[in-house]
Write a structure and sequence with these properties.
globular; 2 domains; 34% helix; 14% strand; 5-stranded parallel sheet; alpha/beta; 13 helices; 6-stranded parallel sheet; Rossmann fold
């Protein structure tokens, strides 16, 4: 039996499919599972301890479909569900195609009119419904990155600075307000575009260790796995940290947990968010700048409460 799972991007969305991939492997132990995504996501799939066979988008959908047609899949599970995947189904001449419901209309109602009609179901569970499985726990493969944590403190806070869009990113002024109330070892994580932000923080707090732009995805996973507490924006590394069921403080800007994309873990998460803003959520993804110009969803965050939560979680017995 051959199964194709489709999810083109992004890192966080692909990570959220892992519980479904594991469930498919459990349900069909002799099946060969392939995963179609963008070539840039190869490192994400390599985190799966039980490997799948990657299949990558080609320059055109016709080329992609031509390659995939040769595989003669018994089952295709579309966890992306957009126009491109519909066209791909047509080009593959594949009738048996299970689609994930994206609920874009409900999200539009929420972002446009603040009318929340979304089901109170995590996106992982909705992925699983599309695949007709129950989500299964996943062990990630990051053991080859042990050298990264050898020089780090025994106990530390892993702080994820990154976010694809600026309206999902805790700004420098609030970071300084929050961190100056902490007396804890802090390790910064993020991509190269967060280098300037990390440098500004290190100028204020010389004891902070920055691994921003210095880790692979597997190395970042290991840093998150060893942390006592994870502080993060709504971003891909938030979902990566959830595999380790860590005490977590999630800082939400223009997006909201009600979209069903909060950390999928057993341990409770403290969601830091500015309540009762008439403009929030303003997008299901994010913006480069606040559409209203005030950025209240981040600038009105309670830095005292956030710092108190981090400290409490750090010293709490696991």
């Amino acid at each position: 039996m051959k199964i194709l799972v489709v999810r083109f991007s992004a890192i966080g969305d692909i990570l959220l499919t892992f519980s479904v991939v594991a469930a498919l492997q459990h349900k069909y132990p002799s099946a060969e599972i392939h995963f179609l995504t963008k070539p840039s996501n190869k490192a994400v799939l390599e985190l799966l301890s039980s490997k799948v066979q990657p299949r990558f988008l080609q320059e055109s959908l016709v080329q992609t479909a031509t390659q995939l047609r040769r595989e003669r899949y018994d089952l295709v599970i579309d966890l992306h569900n957009n126009l491109r995947t519909f066209l791909l189904q047509v080009l593959m001449l594949k009738g048996s195609w299970h689609r994930f419901r994206k609920l874009n209309f409900q999200k539009w109602l929420f972002t446009s009119f603040k009318w929340n009609t979304l089901p109170k179901v995590h996106v992982v569970e909705r992925y699983a419904q599309a695949a007709k499985v129950n989500p299964t726990s996943v062990t990630l493969s990051a053991n080859n990155a042990n050298h990264v944590v050898e020089s780090l403190p025994l106990n530390y806070v892993a702080w994820v600075l990154g976010a694809t869009f600026s309206t999902k990113q805790y700004p420098l002024s609030k970071l300084i307000e929050t961190i100056e109330r902490l007396d804890l070892p802090i390790i910064l994580l993020g991509g190269e575009k967060e280098n300037a932000l990390a440098s500004s923080l290190q100028a204020h707090f010389p004891s902070i260790i920055s691994l921003v732009g210095k880790t692979s995805l597997a190395e970042a996973a290991l840093v998150l796995s060893k942390a006592k507490v994870v502080v993060t924006n709504d971003t891909g590394l938030m979902h990566l940290a959830a595999f380790y069921d860590k005490p977590m403080v999630c800082i939400w800007g223009n997006t909201v947990p009600e979209f069903g994309m909060y950390p999928f873990q057993k341990r409770p998460v403290f969601n830091a968010q500015v309540a009762d803003l008439s403009c929030r959520p303003c997008s299901k993804i994010g913006h480069n700048t606040c559409p209203k110009g005030h950025f209240d969803c981040m600038l009105k965050q309670q830095s005292v409460e956030i710092s108190e939560q981090i400290t409490s979680l750090f010293y709490r017995e696991n």
